[in-house]
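> forwarded from #structure-qc
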């Protein structure tokens, strides 16, 4: 779900103008902006006027300036400006967002009551709910008969995602007024012997508040279809045992918060969604995957094996700290897609995905990631949502890029400057700075007894002593022509050799 889709029409236009200007380095020609955003001059002028007032009222250190002579618009911002409060302002003005908040705070609604509350017709309420049901479909939830329906774990997860990704974190922190929930977070921290960071504490506090709020709406423990994804293995997980013990020690027998499944919900939350910092997850032995879920372990091992095979990586060559870090990341990712459905961002996951695509270093790995995703779906027994695929693709591309550091498959580049040895070092640094983040290269001063894929030199003099497949004569690495030509060479070689 993209929160942008919840906004009213003018809100969408105004946020689009802001983001357009951010992408255009803060200044844009108005005629080009109108074409790219497909809005009229009338709509632009009206929305810029309203947006200027809103920015001034919110005191965000953001402002718009229109230069009528140059026919340009400029966004002025400080380096410390966050857009979270601006997004939240527009969401609070959105009727769809207000309906979702109403469903969280109230057990039910009537169409008439909502029409009176929002000063719209009953037909308009029906249209908004129909639109919301389309957005909720990825969470396998639906609004009907006056309430939100579906698996209880999914409902809790949806509201967590909604608030965590819409409300500024400072505001969530400012609402930490539930003393018992705060005490429980501190108690859990001591039981797990895990020093919680500020983000972890806030995530746990919000999750616990949601569990308590949802419990008030239930007369009996819900049927939880998501729990079928769990095998009995998790009962042996020391994390689960400590979470369950902490939970039941913290609630009285008559407390409304006391349900067995709530302890499991807490465990699932802590085991996924990147809640516990990776540096603190030491309750399991360091050589194990940090989970007892056999399905998650199977997915983890499958991803690692695919990458090791594709890039001829020897496990013994992988840094131990890297292994621990990525055991955490892969376990959190796969636990999330096993236990939960759907994801919330403000803008489309596709936009983040497309920006990653434009970084050439990731391009050769797309086919490998598609194979991994297909095998993931086969293992899970269901197809991933398109937004989930994009999220998984982004993380796997990053993982593969990190793993490639330990691969034997790199473009070997030798550098030889016949006039000046110092110039060789300068040229090597320049090449590394330009191409290290774009291609898989190993660059060094050329040695006579080594084989190179590419030799880069300042002249043809003396190159006969070296063994190389391709040669490029460079002009001190100072021209765009050199950079573009080397870029083409490295792209072609990467594609040809599957690097």
């Amino acid at each position: 779900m993209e929160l942008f889709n919840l906004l009213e029409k003018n809100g969408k236009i105004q946020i689009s103008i802001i983001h357009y200007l951010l992408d255009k380095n803060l200044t844009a020609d108005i005629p080009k902006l109108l074409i790219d955003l497909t809005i009229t001059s009338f709509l632009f002028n009206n929305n810029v006027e309203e947006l200027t007032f809103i920015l001034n009222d919110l005191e965000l250190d953001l402002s718009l300036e229109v230069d009528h002579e140059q026919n340009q618009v400029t966004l002025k911002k400080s380096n410390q400006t966050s857009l979270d409060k601006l997004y939240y302002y527009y969401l609070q003005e959105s009727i769809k967002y207000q309906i979702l908040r109403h469903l969280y705070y109230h057990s039910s609604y009537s169409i008439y009551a909502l029409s009176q509350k929002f000063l719209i017709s009953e037909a308009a309420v029906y249209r908004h709910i129909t639109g919301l049901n389309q957005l909720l479909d990825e969470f396998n939830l639906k609004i009907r008969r006056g309430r939100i329906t579906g698996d209880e774990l999914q409902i809790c997860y949806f509201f967590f995602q909604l608030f965590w990704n819409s409300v500024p974190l400072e505001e969530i922190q400012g609402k930490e007024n539930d003393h018992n929930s705060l005490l429980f977070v501190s108690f859990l921290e001591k039981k797990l012997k895990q020093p919680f960071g500020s983000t972890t504490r806030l995530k746990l506090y919000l999750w616990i508040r949601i569990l308590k709020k949802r419990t008030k709406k239930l007369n009996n423990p819900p049927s939880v279809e998501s729990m079928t994804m769990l095998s009995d293995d998790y009962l042996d997980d020391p994390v689960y045992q400590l979470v369950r013990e902490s939970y039941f020690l913290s609630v009285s027998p008559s407390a409304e918060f006391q349900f067995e499944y709530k302890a499991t919900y807490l465990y699932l939350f802590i085991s996924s969604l990147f809640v516990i910092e990776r540096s603190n997850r030491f309750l399991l032995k360091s050589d194990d995957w940090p989970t007892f879920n056999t399905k998650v372990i199977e997915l983890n091992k499958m991803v690692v094996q695919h990458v090791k095979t594709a890039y001829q990586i020897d496990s013994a060559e992988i840094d131990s700290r890297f292994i621990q870090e990525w055991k955490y990341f892969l376990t959190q990712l796969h636990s999330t897609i096993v236990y939960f459905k759907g994801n919330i961002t403000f803008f489309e996951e596709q936009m983040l995905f497309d920006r990653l695509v434009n970084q050439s270093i990731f391009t050769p790995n797309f086919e490998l990631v598609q194979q991994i995703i297909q095998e993931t779906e086969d293992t899970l027994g269901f197809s991933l949502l398109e937004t989930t695929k994009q999220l998984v693709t982004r993380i796997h591309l990053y993982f593969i890029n990190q793993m490639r550091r330990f691969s034997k498959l790199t473009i070997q580049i030798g550098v030889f400057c016949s006039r000046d040895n110092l110039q060789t070092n300068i040229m090597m640094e320049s090449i590394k700075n330009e191409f290290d983040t774009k291609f898989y290269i190993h660059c060094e001063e050329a040695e006579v007894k080594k084989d190179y894929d590419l030799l880069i030199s300042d002249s043809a003099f003396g190159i006969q002593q070296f063994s190389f497949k391709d040669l490029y004569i460079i002009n001190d690495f100072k021209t765009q022509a050199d950079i573009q030509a080397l870029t083409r060479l490295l792209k072609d070689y990467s594609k040809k050799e599957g690097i």
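QC bot note: DSSP finds 20 helices and nine strands in the chain. Residues 354 and 390 are 10 Å apart (CA to CA).
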